[in-house]
Amino acid sequence: MPGFFITNIESQDSFELNNYCQEKCIRDEIQFKNVTVKRNILNAFTKDKIFFENNQYILLTDGVIFDTEKLLDQTKTSDIKDALLSIAENEEKFFESINGHCSGALYYKNEDKWVIFTNPLGDRAIFYYYNNGEYIIGSQLNYVTDYMKLVGISRNVDRHGISCLMDFGYFIDNSTCIKNIKRLYPGEYLVINDSACITRQYYIAEFEEKAISLEDAIESLDTAFCRAVKRIADKNLEYGYKNLLDISGGLDSRIICYTMKRLGYNNSIMITYSQSNSHEEKITKSISQKLDFELYHKILDNGKCIKDIDELVFMNSGVSYYYGITGGKDFLEVLDNRILGMEFTGVLGDIYDGSMLTENGLSKPTIESDKYRASKLNSIDKKNSYSTYINKFKKNDTFWLYTRGMLAGLSTFLIRQNFIEPVTPFGDKDFLRCYLSIPWEMRVKDRVLFKWFLNKYPSAAQIRYAATGLKPINHSSKFSKVKYRLLLYIKKGWSLLQGKPLPNNMNPVKFWLKTNEDLIPYIDNYFYTEMEACSLSQEIKSKLYSLYNDNSDFNNKAVALTVVAYSKLFIK
Q1: What is the pLDDT of residue 488?
Q2: 3-class secondary-structure state, position 204
Q3: In this structure, how many other beta carbons lie within 10 angstroms of the beta carbon of residue 480?
Q4: 496 CB contacts (<8 Å, ≥6 apart)?
Q5: All residues at 6 or more sequence positions from 206 whose CB lies less than 8 Å from its CB, including other chains
Q6: Which of 402, 495, 561, 565 has the lowest CB atom count within 10 Å?
Q7: Alpha-carbon distance 229 to 256, whole Å?
Q8: Local structure of 299: helix, strand or coil
Q9: Kind and range of the H or E element at 530?
Q10: What are 52-75's pLDDT values in tens digits?
Q11: What distance in Å separates the CA atoms of residue 356 and residue 389, rounded to the nearest whole number?
């Protein structure tokens, strides 16, 4: 993702921040004594992206800040920069006052002190290198590794980090694959002062559960969600942007579209990308027609997105296996961010299941859950310890909300941020508090989110759900479920006879690999060529060969390709 760069390590050579889409970015620089600050940010929502210096402070932010009028009223100022500086001396008040999807940094010149923060969801990534008072901080991993290379600092493999990436397909803590480079965990900030580097927590989405009736829970969820959607849409309206709605055949994105219509935000367009003739294509067309929103559909029939290994790993800084966004990158690349505002996504919603975990959610946190491992070929490396971040949470449910939801699920935001500003109303702080205060038993067993959906959006419940093929309104009907299973078997047999993918699979990777004769030779050549060139240990290479040569699941190959690309782009 584009963003900012900070270092106190001087170099005689010039250094430029390298982004994927340089033509869509704004570049600036501040030099104060031995401190260098640069930014290379997306040219959108520029009033919210502060880059300022005076005699006391250097202040920078990247992303979007909500409720700015409220903050200006509270601080009795007329400019967002002045509002933040007026509360700069009070760390607790500073973080409480910022509501939005933004990262940033504040430098106190008199104290030679940095406070650098990510947002509560962690999708505004911050990577940092620190060693004996020297530091390099960047919004993109390549900002840090490119500068390390320039000034002659070694980039050595971190065994813990690379094992984590191979075990899960993403990172479940603050590690990277490189020693001495960490990533700020969601809701954390970094303090660098007096030759010390300390991370502190300012936000965690773990709240005391409160007894509540099902009816009151539904009303509370509805109020909180409408407010969350309104915050985002009003910000787009402030800049004169259209709302961009990423829609699929699921319920999470659907409820966003229906809420936009319900609240009167008609200046909205919908985008979707899937295999042609899939449930996704038919369902999104139906939603578009009912809501009278424009719809743009990108067909993914050739599976060409599987080839974008280097580009995707570069943009997501290698935080997750590369192809999770499938065709999203190609679609977003052609959109005009001068017209389109924030992209609404349904990430973190889990309306259908009610929670990341539908069993053992109240148990003590544990990493031993195969459900959320991209590759299950290797057993988890028992020599690694993830206890530091497991111990942050009281419940397994919250641990996996952060791990699978934020660190993995939101990893595509790092790619999207090269083209657009992505958000999820399900990650709104007020909505999370409302949702996570509802007892887990009610969320999972009583399915309160699903009942909220049925109660407040009955017309949306009349449109089929892509994963099951059933109308949500009929999900409790045993007859409908039996009928669906019978039809699915018939469709599966018919698809096999015709050599077509199942319609309930929007990203039929196995079908793409089978029908596009260019894909397997391309990724084979990439993997074996880069494996020859990489400097990874024989132990790691052996595991990568095992992953790549296992044909039971493409995810095994995807994880191996991601690790090799990571080595090529950031370590080699």
Answers
A1: 62
A2: coil
A3: 16
A4: none
A5: 393, 394, 395, 398, 436
A6: 495
A7: 7
A8: strand
A9: helix 519-533
A10: 999 999 999 999 999 899 999 999
A11: 17
Q: Which amino acid is at 388?
A: T
- Find, among 298, 293, 325, the residue nearest to 312 by Cα: 325
With a CB cutoff of 8 Å and minimum separation 6, the contacts of 409 are: 347, 348
83: Cα separation from own chain's centroid: 28
The predicted pLDDT at position 271 comes to 95
Using CA atoms, how far residue 531 sits from 536, 562, 572, in Å, is: 8, 12, 11
- Rounded CA-CA distance 356/377 in Å is 22
**Contact status, residue 392 vs residue 204, Cβ threshold 8 Å:** yes
The residue type of 118 is T
Please report the pLDDT score of residue 430 as a whole number.
96
User: Which residue bears the tokens 């699941």?
Assistant: 553
Count CB-CB contacts under 10 A for residue 517: 9
- The residues pairing with 136 across neighbouring beta strands, listed in sequence order, are 7, 129
415, 328 contact by CB (below 8 A): yes
Q: Quote the tokens at residue 445.
A: 């067993």
Residues 208-251 pLDDT 10s:
999 999 999 999 999 999 999 999 999 999 999 999 999 998 99
Q: Which residues contact 359 (CB under 8 A, 6 or more apart)?
A: none
Residues of the chain with pLDDT under 70: 379-386, 476-504
Candidates 80, 76, 81; CA nearest to 68 is 80
Lookup: tokens for 89: 């001396």
Q: How many residues comprise the chain?
A: 572
CB 226 within 8 A of CB 256: no
| Helix (H), strand (E) at residue 214 | helix 214-239
Q: Are 149 and 353 in contact (CB under 8 A)?
A: no
Q: Which helix (H) or strand (E) holds 343?
A: strand 340-344
Calpha distance 53→139 (Å, rounded):
20
Q: DSSP of 471-493, one letter per residue?
A: -GGGTT-HHHHHHHHHHHHHHHH
**Phi-psi region at 186: left, alpha or beta (left = phi > 0; alpha = psi -120 to 50):** beta
Main-chain dihedrals φ then ψ at residue 409, nearest 5 degrees: -60, -40
Q: Give the integer Cα–Cα distance in Å for 247 and 196.
A: 45
Both structure tokens of 146: 């490119």
